[in-house]
Specification:
The protein is of the alpha+beta class and about 600 residues long. The chain contains 17 helices and 20 strands. Helices cover about 35% and strands about 20% of the residues. It is elongated, with a radius of gyration of 41 Å. The termini are far apart.
C-alpha cells in the first residue's frame, strides 16, 4: 500500500509563501488517514458479522430440519455404541403354491431396562407386573435395585403393551426395534412350517432362525440377502390344507383316535399338496420339546414323516405287483389260500379267523385282504428278491422330502430277512415305515410305474425317477385296488364321481419294550383318485382308533380310516379342480326304436 506523506513538500512550500501554517496541512492529512483506517476496519467488521450471521442461520436451519425429521419419524432408543457384527433382520416370506402367505415378518419391539437410569425401580417393577402377569415381581425388584446395568424384560411385546409401559413414565425402561416371525394362519400347516425363534440378540436387532420344518431346512435361503427377498414357495395348497385339517380333526375325534396323519400327494410331480399331523400346535407359540415320555405324545411330533408304523395290509398290493412284475402271477392267477399255513414254527392266519376256501385269484386275494394268500405269494417271490424290490421302492432309506424331521426316519427292517420275515412283511408286519414312504410307493402304482420322491416345494411339471414297475402291471394293480373299494374291505371309501381306489391296513400297535398291545391298532387307508387316471394319492393313518358301529366295537381301517379318507376326498377333490365323473343313468319307461 502507498501511504501519503503527512507533510508533503509540494504543499508545504507554497503554503509558506502564502503565509499559511504548514501544521494545518499535517493535521488534515492525519484526519484523512484515520478516516480511511476506520472505513477499512468497519468494512472488515461488517464482513465478519455477515459471515457469522450466515453461519448461525445455517446452524439453526439444520437443527430445525433435523427436529422436523425426528418429529415425523418413528421413535427409536438412542444407541451409545455397538460391538460385534451386525445382525441381519430381514427374513424372506414363505408362501403356498398360489402365492398366499404362510409365514412373514412383523415389526415389533423388545423391552429392557437400564437400572442406573430408573427413577423408582420398585414402582416400575410393580407396574410391569400389572402389564405382564407372568413376570416375577420380586425378581424384577432385585434386578432393578442391584448392581446390574442391563436387564432383559421381554423379547417381544405388542403395541398395547408398549403403550402401557410408556405410561409408567420411568426413563430406565427402554425399547429396542426388532422383527419377529409371524404365522398368520395359526396352526395351519404347523408341522410343515415348523417355526422360528431368536438366535443372536442385541438391543436393536435379533436374529430370526428356523427351529423345525421348512423354516430350519431352508434357513440359509430365507436369511440370504442375495435372494433379494424372494419368497420360498411351497407345494402346499392353503385351501386344501385347511379342508384336510378340519376333516382329519373331526375324524380323529369321532374315531376316538390318539393321533392322526394324512398326506395328499401329486403322483406325477411328488408335490405334497397337504400334510396334516394331529395333535398339532401354533408355531406363533411353539411349545417346548418334551424331555421325557413318548415323543409321539408331543404335538411337535410329525406323524407323517417321523411316525414309523407297521402299515398292515396296505403292503399286500406291493407283494402282488412284484409277483406280476416277475411274471409269476397275473391278476386272474389262482393263489392257494388253504389253511393251515405254517412257517418256522409259526402259523399264519386270517383276520378274525376268516376262511376264504382253497384258493382265490390274485385280484381276490387283494380284494378280500387274505394274509394266507399274500404270504404264499411272498414265498413264491423269495426273501432276496422281495428285499431288493422294497429297497427300490424306497423303504430302506429316510424319505427325501425337505423336512428336517424326515432325515432321521429310516424304516425299521428285520435284521435277518428270511422266509418267515418275507411272508409277514408281505402283509405289512415286521417292517416299519412312515406314511410318507407309503405315499411314494402308491404314487408309483398310480403314475404308471415311476418312483417319484415326495417334495414340499412347488415343481414345474412331472419329476419322474427310475421306473420300478411296468405300465401294464401298474394298470392291473389300479384295477385291483379299485375292486377293494367297490367290493372289498374299503366300501365306505366310495366317493361318487371320483372313482377311489385303495387298500386298507390294520396292524397291531407294537410296545416300546417289545411285543404288541392288546386291542390297540394303527389303521391306514392308502388310496388314489380318480382310479381311471390317478392324479393324487391320499394316505390317512389313525393311531388307536375305535368306534362302536352296527352294535360292535370296531378298530379296523375299513370302519375308521376309510370313512375319514372318503370325506376328505369329497371335500378336497373339487378344490383341486377335479370334476366329478357323472355316470349317465338309464331312463325308465322309454323304448328307443329306429326309423
Amino acid at each position: 500500500m502507498i501511504r501519503t506523506p503527512l507533510r508533503p513538500l509540494a504543499r508545504i512550500l507554497p503554503a509558506r509563501v502564502r503565509g499559511e501554517n504548514p501544521d494545518a496541512i499535517e493535521r488534515e492529512n492525519i484526519r484523512r488517514r484515520h478516516a480511511e483506517m476506520q472505513a477499512r476496519a468497519r468494512a472488515r467488521a461488517e464482513g465478519r458479522l455477515l459471515m457469522l450471521g450466515l453461519f448461525f442461520v445455517g446452524a439453526f436451519a439444520t437443527v430445525g430440519v433435523r427436529m422436523a425429521m425426528m418429529a415425523t419419524s418413528d421413535p427409536h432408543e438412542p444407541v451409545a455404541g455397538r460391538s460385534g457384527s451386525a445382525i441381519v433382520m430381514q427374513r424372506a416370506d414363505i408362501v403356498d403354491r398360489k402365492g398366499r402367505v404362510l409365514a412373514t415378518n412383523l415389526e415389533t419391539v423388545s423391552l429392557y431396562a437400564q437400572p442406573p437410569l430408573m427413577v423408582d425401580p420398585v414402582a416400575a417393577a410393580r407396574g410391569l407386573k400389572r402389564i405382564f402377569p407372568d413376570l416375577d415381581e420380586a425378581r424384577l425388584i432385585k434386578d432393578f435395585t442391584g448392581k446390574r446395568k442391563f436387564v432383559w424384560i421381554k423379547k417381544k411385546i405388542s403395541p398395547e403393551q408398549r403403550q402401557a409401559v410408556f405410561d409408567l413414565g420411568d426413563p430406565g425402561l427402554l425399547f429396542g426395534p426388532r422383527e419377529m416371525r409371524l404365522y398368520p394362519n395359526g396352526r395351519l400347516a404347523a408341522h410343515v412350517l415348523g417355526g422360528a425363534s431368536f438366535g443372536r440378540e442385541g438391543v436393536n436387532a435379533a436374529e430370526v432362525i428356523g427351529v423345525a420344518g421348512v423354516e430350519r431346512r431352508f434357513d440359509d435361503y430365507l436369511r440370504d440377502p442375495a435372494n433379494g427377498g424372494r419368497p420360498l414357495q411351497l407345494s402346499i395348497d392353503l385351501t386344501v390344507q385347511d379342508a384336510a385339517e378340519r376333516v382329519l380333526a373331526g375324524g380323529m375325534k369321532i374315531m376316538n383316535a390318539r393321533g392322526a396323519t394324512s398326506i395328499l400327494m401329486d403322483v406325477d410331480t411328488g408335490e405334497v399338496i397337504s400334510l396334516v399331523s394331529l395333535p398339532d400346535f401354533d408355531p406363533n407359540e411353539r411349545p417346548a420339546p418334551p424331555v421325557k415320555g413318548d415323543p409321539s405324545d408331543s404335538p411337535l411330533f410329525n406323524r407323517a414323516v417321523q411316525g414309523l408304523y407297521e402299515l398292515g395290509s396296505t403292503f399286500k398290493i406291493l407283494t402282488a405287483v412284484q409277483a406280476m412284475e416277475l411274471g409269476l402271477l397275473g391278476p386272474d392267477s389262482p393263489v392257494d389260500t388253504s389253511r393251515p399255513l405254517r412257517q418256522s414254527g409259526y402259523e399264519i392266519g386270517e383276520f378274525k379267523n376268516k376262511n376264504y376256501g382253497p384258493s382265490l385269484t390274485l385280484a381276490k386275494v387283494i380284494e378280500k385282504s387274505s394274509n394266507v394268500g399274500t404270504a404264499r405269494v411272498a414265498r413264491m417271490i423269495g426273501p432276496e428278491r422281495q428285499k431288493k424290490f422294497f429297497e427300490r421302492m424306497g423303504f430302506f432309506d429316510p424319505v427325501g422330502i425337505e423336512l428336517v424331521e424326515a432325515r432321521g426316519s429310516r424304516p425299521l427292517i428285520p435284521r435277518q430277512w428270511r422266509e418267515l420275515e418275507a411272508m409277514t412283511i408281505a402283509y405289512g408286519h415286521g417292517l416299519s415305515a412312515t406314511p410318507m414312504h407309503l405315499a411314494a410307493a402308491y404314487a408309483a402304482i398310480a403314475n404308471g410305474g415311476y418312483y417319484v420322491s415326495p417334495t414340499i416345494l412347488k415343481q414345474n411339471g412331472p419329476q419322474y425317477g427310475p421306473r420300478v414297475l411296468s405300465e401294464k402291471v401298474a394298470a392291473d394293480a389300479r384295477r385291483m385296488l379299485r375292486a377293494v373299494v367297490t367290493d372289498g374291505t374299503a366300501t365306505f371309501g366310495e366317493v361318487p364321481g371320483y372313482e377311489v381306489a385303495g387298500k386298507t391296513g390294520t396292524a397291531d400297535k407294537p410296545k416300546p419294550e417289545g411285543g404288541y398291545y392288546e386291542g390297540k391298532v394303527i389303521a391306514t387307508f392308502a388310496s388314489m383318485f380318480p382310479a381311471s387316471d390317478p392324479k393324487y394319492v391320499l394316505i390317512v393313518t389313525l393311531d388307536e382308533p375305535s368306534i362302536t358301529a352296527a352294535g360292535q366295537l370296531r378298530r379296523s381301517a375299513g370302519w375308521t380310516a376309510v370313512p375319514v379318507a372318503a370325506e376328505m376326498i369329497a371335500r378336497v377333490a373339487p378344490l383341486l379342480g377335479l370334476r366329478p365323473k357323472v355316470e349317465a343313468s338309464r331312463v325308465t319307461g322309454i323304448t328307443l326304436t329306429s326309423n
